[in-house]
Amino acid sequence: MPTLYIVATPIGNLEDITLRAIRVLKEVDLILCEDTRVTKKLLQKYEIETPTMSYHAHSKLSKVDKIFGLLEEGKNLALVSDAGTPTISDPGVLLVSQVKKRFGKEVSIVPIPGPSAVIAALSASGFPASEFVFLGFLPHKKGRETLFKEIADSKKTTVFYESPHRIVKALASLSSHIGVSRQIVLARELTKIYEQFLSGSAAEIADYFTKNPDKVRGEFVVVVSGK
Ligand code: SAM
Predict the structure, then answer these.
(1) Looking at the structure, do residues 108 and 121 belong to the same domain, yes or no?
(2) Which ranges of 34-191 would DSSP assign to H, the alpha helix?
(3) Can you tell me the distance from the alpha carbon of 179 to that of 225, in angstroms, rounded to the nearest whole number?
(4) Is the CB–ligand 1 distance for residue 34 below 6 Å?
(5) Which ligand 1 atom is at minimum distance from the Cα of 12?
(6) Residue 184 phi, psi dihedral angles, 5° rounding
(7) % of residues, the chain, pLDDT over 70
(8) Which one of 56, 114, 139, 147 has the fewest beta carbons within 10 angstroms of its own beta carbon?
(9) How confident is the model at residue 2 (pLDDT cuts 50, 70, 90)?
């Protein structure tokens, strides 16, 4: 049966890939990549010579038709994103749902689990993690304030992604909603050379970034303790 594998790849450190992911990436007929140039670095490291094709959020319907055609021919495909687990704040959700709708049980959809920044940050936060709320990227405008209010009211640990452009503002807004008693952990550059964890109130961490503007770069996950 043709298979679409959803393959998790490293979020920074290229050693963070499973043996199964390497085998699958070697064995499939084609790898669908968010950005082929990014994935090629990983493929080179593990001497994976499988052909690649781009598939991203803005891919046209003709690309999906091509993917359908390959599955109809019985080909096995792997979907990867630039980092971490595809579909988690990343492209792929639509493709998975379209393949399920079109082929039903005639195509297997198989996850190959591995890194995801949300889980890495949460696992090192020390906050309760049996139940948590993951918000992905917060909206830039509409709904942003409402989400901060929801975080403030939540008894559960909340995790979200934020970009360097908005992190300081996000911490300031968060601080105005949750005050100083709620602890947060900010994970920066997970698994990379300059990996950093900051703990404290949102105001304390915002203050750290104001005093250390050179650290306002890279990738961030914010973990907020429950109420
Ligand atoms: N699919 C990915 C995953 O499973 O984690 C997430 C992709 S999303 C487009 C990218 C965001 O994830 C970044 O802006 C950042 O918030 C977070 N992220 C990804 N890699 C990270 C890392 N090494 N350190 C901290 N945050 C990271």
Answers:
(1) no
(2) 36-45, 61-72, 93-103, 117-125, 144-153, 167-178
(3) 12
(4) no
(5) 23
(6) -130, 155
(7) 100
(8) 139
(9) very high
